[in-house]
Design brief:
Low-confidence stretches: 101-116, 442-449
Number of helices: 14
Order of helices and strands: HHHEEHEHHEHEHEEEHEEEHHHEEHEEEH
Oligomer: single chain
Mean pLDDT: 86
Helix content: 25-40%
Strand order of the largest sheet: 4-11-10-9-8-5-6-7
Distance between the termini: 47 Å
Structural class: alpha/beta
Strand content: 5-15%
CATH class of the largest domain: Alpha Beta
Shape: globular
Largest sheet: 8 strands, mixed
CATH topology of the largest domain: Aspartate Aminotransferase, domain 2
Length: 483
């Protein structure tokens, strides 16, 4: 971050004006940002120092800062300076008339020119990371950097596995000893580890939910394996349609029982038990993708599927990741491995090594042990619940069917004419994801399940989200032939 700017910035305050001084200061700062005098990541003076220099109350400066933070021009974190938003170019793109350098328009089906609206990115499942950097976070990384690295056991740092084990017990009601866990670089890396442990991944046959999460499907095919589509409905996997002899049995199935992706349902307990009985009968590994189970907006987080597994004859491996609750760039996750498969998983890990460094594992272990992750998750859950409510309110009377939004960072919107809605979103400069892209093949179910869009609402600033929702409502009306 740049050094803090001096208090002698060229701002204009007219004490004879009827406009409050806080609003005047906000307007002056906004103009300085727009004309390039203040650049992204510039640190502003403290409210106390600037109030003294300007001869105004500290409340006046706080009011101005708060207004510009709400508008996305500034960002602030506890314990550090208020700064010009480092992501300023995306939140408030420069125009040809501003003093800031212009940039090329974002890639999209309809390109906005300098005199048109900027694109709002509704890419799903991106979390907000602006509240992550706290004293607890800094302390964990600082301490980790002071620890001399030592060779890691194949399963990963014991302190981290013990922390994850305790976190799962408190947050998910899942009791598993640290020895059942293996540290991974995320869900995809954990899946690749499991598939290699099962045998030759090029010969693997893996059942996947259709529709389902594309990135895990790509892991299977990238390793040379084959996909077997398993149908779902609004409640999740249709267990009464799982393959039976004489059909070939898959080696594994990947499921999202706590929050089916992208249709949003939660797998009922009778289907969960049916899946486990089927897997045990045919010796199929059930790979539970527990990707955002803690971001529950309605009720408490649901128990993991592994909690129903038979400890005497386990068939469930659970993939966990902190990409949604923390940040995908941290690349820390885990896999809970059933006992019969654990020796082979550790053997593969010894052969390939761990992709997660000692420093990262040490830092995350300290972050967990301090209780900071639980507090951060609770804060983010409250924020995401408020955003989810705003999405539902905006779409309440819209010509669309919204899939269940009991958890997560996205909304699946079902319509009868997906191409028309995509065209309208492009016209409104919205980057969205077609719902039909979540099916493994081109065979898409009839509306309303098979067509629509998926939007993410976790990563935008509040003003950007509000503007995006207004444009989305307009796009929905246009796709129906409205004015």
């Amino acid at each position: 971050m740049r050094s803090t700017l001096p208090t002698a910035l060229p701002v204009s305050l007219d004490r004879a004006s009827a406009t409050p001084l806080g609003a005047q200061l906000a307007a002056s700062l906004r103009a300085l940002i727009e004309n390039g005098t203040l650049a992204a990541a510039d640190a502003l003076p403290s409210t106390r120092a600037w109030a003294a220099a300007l001869g105004v109350s500290r409340t006046t400066v706080v009011t101005a800062y708060d207004q510009l933070i709400a508008e996305g021009y500034l960002t602030a974190r506890r314990g550090s300076s208020t700064v010009v938003n480092a992501d300023l170019a995306r939140v408030h793109p420069p125009t040809a008339s501003s003093g800031r350098p212009t940039r090329r328009p974002l890639t999209h089906a309809a390109q906005p020119g300098p005199d048109r609206a900027s694109t709002i990115d509704f890419t799903p499942d991106r979390p907000s990371t602006d509240a992550l950097i706290t004293p607890d976070w800094r302390r964990a990384w600082r301490h980790a950097a002071e620890v001399v690295p030592t060779p890691l056991p194949p399963a990963g740092l014991l302190a981290l596995r013990a922390g994850v084990s305790d976190h799962l017990r408190r947050m998910r009601g899942l009791q598993r000893p640290a020895d059942d866990l293996v540290v991974t670089a995320g869900a995809r890396e954990g899946l690749a580890l499991l598939l290699r442990a099962l045998g030759d991944p090029t010969q693997a046959s893996v059942g996947v939910e259709s529709p389902g999460y594309p990135s895990l499907r790509r892991v299977v095919t990238a390793l040379g394996g084959a996909l077997v589509e398993l149908p779902v409905d609004d409640s999740g996997l249709l267990t009464d349609e799982l393959p039976e002899p004489p059909l070939a049995m898959p080696d594994a199935v990947i499921v999202t029982p706590s929050h089916q992706y992208p249709l949003g349902g939660s797998l009922p307990v009778d289907r969960r038990l049916s899946l486990l009985h089927w897997a045990r009968r045919h010796r199929v590994l059930v790979i539970e993708d527990d990707y955002d189970s803690e971001l529950r907006h309605v009720g408490q987080p649901l128990p993991a599927l592994a909690a129903l597994d038979d400890p005497g004859d386990p068939v469930v491996a659970t993939l966990g990741t902190y990409s949604k609750t923390v940040a995908p760039e941290v690349a820390v996750g885990f896999v809970i491995v059933p006992a019969p498969l654990l020796p082979r998983v550790l053997e593969v890990r010894r052969d390939l090594g761990s992709p997660v460094s000692h420093v990262v594992q040490q830092a995350f272990a300290e972050y967990l042990a301090s209780g900071a992750l639980g507090r951060h998750t609770a804060r983010m859950r409250r924020r995401y619940r408020q955003r989810r409510d705003r999405v539902l309110t905006e779409l309440e009377s819209a010509p669309v069917r919204v899939a269940p939004m009991d958890g997560g960072l996205y909304a699946a919107l079902n319509v009868a004419n997906e191409p028309a809605l995509l065209a309208a979103c492009a016209q409104q400069h919205l980057r969205v994801t077609p719902l039909s892209s979540y099916w493994s093949t081109s065979t898409v179910s009839s509306p309303p399940i098979g067509q629509g869009i998926v939007i993410g609402y976790g990563h935008q600033s509040d003003p950007e989200l509000d503007e995006g929702l207004r444009r989305l409502r307009r796009a929905l009306d246009l796709s129906q032939g409205g004015d």
